[in-house]
């Protein structure tokens, strides 16, 4: 059975809302923002300890909204959440799961793309 979400489930501040499904380590890391917004320190500590699914607790919300969980905790004045977020990583523990790497593939040659587009338009009769 699929769930129809009315709002973005990753940032619903209600602690009684359903737990969203695992999508990726980066999306799972954004649950730290949800934990700070809802004030759930237990959930924040469990995200800190989950090294298999959580990449970092300091991931930005999106490209348009550049705030992280630390920013939201500072804005709310939540010192307990800040202590959890800014705690030192202990020595000798398992490293966190890696974030997918984006690579620079070079510049686009627009003249070649225009030629391919022109050939495609001729072939389909536009």
Explain briefly what this protein structure is:
By secondary structure, the chain is an all-alpha fold. The chain has a domain of 83 residues.
Overall 3D shape? extended
| Unreliable residue runs | none
Helix content: 40-55%
State the helix count. Answer: 6
Q: State the end-to-end CA separation.
A: 44 Å
Strands, total number: 0
Order of helices and strands: HHHHHH
Task: Provide the structure class.
Answer: mainly alpha
Strand content: under 5%
Q: How much is the radius of gyration in Å? A: 21 Å
- Major beta sheet summary: none
Question: Mind explaining what this structure looks like?
Answer:
The protein has a domain of 83 residues. Helix 2 packs antiparallel against helix 3 and helix 3 runs parallel beside helix 5. The termini are far apart. It is mainly alpha-helical and 126 residues long. Helices cover 41% and strands 0% of the residues.
Question: What are the SSEs and their pairings?
Answer:
Layout: H1 25-29, H2 31-38, H3 41-49, H4 69-76, H5 79-85, H6 110-124
Output the keywords.
extended, mainly alpha
């Amino acid at each position: 059975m699929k769930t129809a979400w009315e709002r973005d489930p990753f940032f619903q501040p209600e602690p009684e809302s359903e737990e969203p499904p695992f999508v990726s380590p980066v999306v799972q890391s954004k649950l730290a923002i949800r934990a700070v917004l809802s004030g759930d320190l237990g959930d924040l500590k469990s995200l800190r300890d989950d090294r298999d699914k959580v990449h970092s607790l300091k991931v930005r919300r999106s490209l348009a909204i550049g705030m992280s969980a630390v920013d939201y905790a500072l804005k709310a004045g939540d010192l307990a959440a800040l202590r959890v977020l800014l705690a030192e990583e202990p020595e000798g523990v398992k490293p966190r799961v890696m974030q997918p790497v984006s690579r620079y593939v070079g510049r686009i040659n627009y003249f070649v793309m225009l030629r391919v587009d022109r050939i495609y338009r001729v072939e389909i009769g536009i």
